[in-house]
Amino acid sequence: MGEIAARLGGAELPTSHGLSRGFDMLAAVADVYVDRRPALTYTRDRSVGHLLLPARRGIISDISSLAELTALPGVVSGALTAAVGDRLDPPRASNASSGHVHVEGENSGVVQERMAEVLSRFRLQVAEAQP
Questions:
Q1: 80 in Cβ contact with 66 (< 8 Å)
Q2: For residue 2, is pLDDT > 80?
Q3: Whole-model pTM?
Q4: What is the mean pLDDT of residues 12-35?
Q5: DSSP string of the chain?
Q6: Residue 101, exposed/middle/buried by CB under 10 A (0-12, 13-18, 19+)?
Q7: Do 41 and 21 touch, CB atoms closer than 8 A?
């Protein structure tokens, strides 16, 4: 727990699970770590998934704002890790992104449809970076 600074593995999966069931996943893990039984009182019953936003090599000249993304149907939270003027050089890895959003829906099919809508509206324009 100390070596990883209380960060949970699985990228945004713990957050997605907490959002889908309405509880604090990090608090539950901390309870287990100190030998307490976590109070897993579920207050929600929905599907939530996390969507990594695309990244492309270059200098960002335009990118959707978090406000624009969270205004889309089903988007409940997110974070951008890139901004206009940033130089992106994403690694060839499955976690390369310019940010992420959490998307909710009644079931996984609705979540997937909403994620497709987010991707269709997401803007990321880059200018070629000079070496």
A1: yes
A2: no
A3: 0.78
A4: 82
A5: -TTTTTPPSSTTHHHHHHHHHTS-HHHHHHHHHTT-----------EEEEEEEP--SEEEEEE--HHHHHTSTTEEEEEE---TTPEE---SSTT--SEEEEEEESSHHHHHHHHHHHHHH--EEEEPPP-
A6: buried
A7: no
Buried b (16+ CB within 10 A) or exposed e, 39-55: eeeeeeebbbbbbebeb
Place of tokens 């205004």: 71
Determine contact, residues 50/13, Cβ cutoff 8 Å. yes
Half-sphere exposure of 88 (CA within 13 A, CB side): 27
Residue type, 64: S
